[in-house]
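Bit of a strange request maybe. I'm writing a small parser for structure token strings and I need a real example to test against, not something I typed by hand. Could someone generate the tokens for this chain?
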Amino acid sequence: MTQKLLPILTVILALLAAWYVAVVPMNIKSALTTAERTGADVVPAGAKERRDLSAIGLVATNSFAIAATFSQDRPRLPAPHQVASELWKTTVEKKITSKRSLVFHAWITLSATLLGFAIGTGMGILLAVGIVHSRAMDMSVMPWAIASQTIPILAIAPMIIVVLNSIGIQGLLPKAFISAYLSFFPVVVGMVKGLRSPDRMQLDLLKTYNSSAPQSLLKLRLPASLPYLFASLKIGIAASLVGAIVGELPTGAVRGLGARLLAGSYYGQTVQIWSALFMAAIVAASLVALVGVVQRLTLKKMGMS
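Reply from user aminoacidic:
Good idea to test on real output. This should exercise your parser:
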């Protein structure tokens, strides 16, 4: 256990140290402006004179302001403890039904994520089965599936929202469709690889038993594809969360992690933006870990681990 934790803790501490170091030059100009307004002697005097100067040079000549860079109300780069404090206030100290609670907003995004992931996974598995069993689908659908992922999600998301709104589909479904768009492709690729993983001898053996194509699929191809499927699902569910967040941006949503990011950018609340980003990362890590647990239990039950 210690051998596993030590490298992780080392990386986390290194990232935190680098983050704290980066906070000082990023926030030094606003800290000096605030200090100057309170009567402190700043070199050089005047925000206009300092505007084009190097941040590192300003830190060297005004070292008294370093402490203030870690406690700015609206910093360019918030310090780790500011983000941690905001996360605590908006998760533990707020009711989960409050619109100021990150748990509330995370649930809004998570509901669209799970629905989109279910749609994307279902589509991906069906397409993969079709591609493996039909030469025509392999030649015609797979290139389009690959081409679909070359379209930037930021470009296609507003179009999906507008088209679905025009036919009366609003609320959760447009975000879920965007999530499904991002999550189906890794499932297709993984399932196609998994369904084709049985070797020729295994397939020939089933033919000697006079098994039909559906029987070969259920008794050989699908079980053999499960390790590939779970690997794809881990990628797909994280991509699905990204899709749900992106889907909240063009709608001007007031609920969800995307809405928190949008509101933070409107009002220059970088601490709010970073706390929403960390909440999204926590949700994504939890979902991937959940898929990992299901993978372990399933493969162990099937004797494949």
